[in-house]
């Protein structure tokens, strides 16, 4: 495979692509080793640097073969040969040719997904996956580059470690509000229940799916060192059965053993490691910096004053 010889490092390659210099490949990071090294040390890379790399991989492109194919399409379309015209009719439905006809690049860029970072990395990944799925004739380098983008986004913005202390310093009600925020970010309609009326659940989350409505009961356990007890899970299971709910989820920052995790398949138990990943993916990798805002918005919604927060 042909590679230009005007770069020796990832940084040199990035600078060439961003400056519009001739470089190949330009739609994917040339070496798998560079991708691995980037991911291994990504916590030491700034968000701006990572976004620069994503821009390299997501820019719009028009290759020489795209222009050549379009010229062939025009020749076939204007041909006197009926077979050629029929073939051109099939080619007519390609959005690639319509874009070229309008003076656009053959392959649209996806740099707009960078604006979803760091607040909504999961949505950025879903958008990229949908684009790749919708374009079966994408250039191989764009497909490889798209996969590299997903790996980079996951490493930088989702698998980012935060300290448990950020949660354990919260009041239980604030933790519940944060979990409600999480479900809202995932597209659920939510109801937060008060302590006197929760009936064994803290949040009720509902979403319409293609196969019907799903309702989830959510229980929040903000522990520092306490372990989750089987009696607690069993009682929650009974609430789910009594109310004929699809499933239940327990968010627990304390210790959870495997026996309790596997107690009932209708109950999903998330520990802090899981919670952190979910928060990063749906609330943004900077959720720690926005804790005060997220909680204050809920406080205003429910009309609670800071000094009266009790539960």
UniProtKB/TrEMBL annotation:
Keyword Nuclease among record annotations: yes
Domain Restriction endonuclease type IV Mrr positions: 168-274
Origin species: Candidatus Pristimantibacillus lignocellulolyticus
Stated name of the protein: Restriction endonuclease
InterPro entries in UniProt: Restrct_endonuc-II-like, Restrct_endonuc_IV_Mrr, tRNA_endonuc-like_dom_sf, Type_IV_Methyl-Rstrct_Enzyme
Domain of life: Bacteria
GO MF term list: DNA binding; restriction endodeoxyribonuclease activity
Pfam families named among the record's database cross-references: Mrr_cat
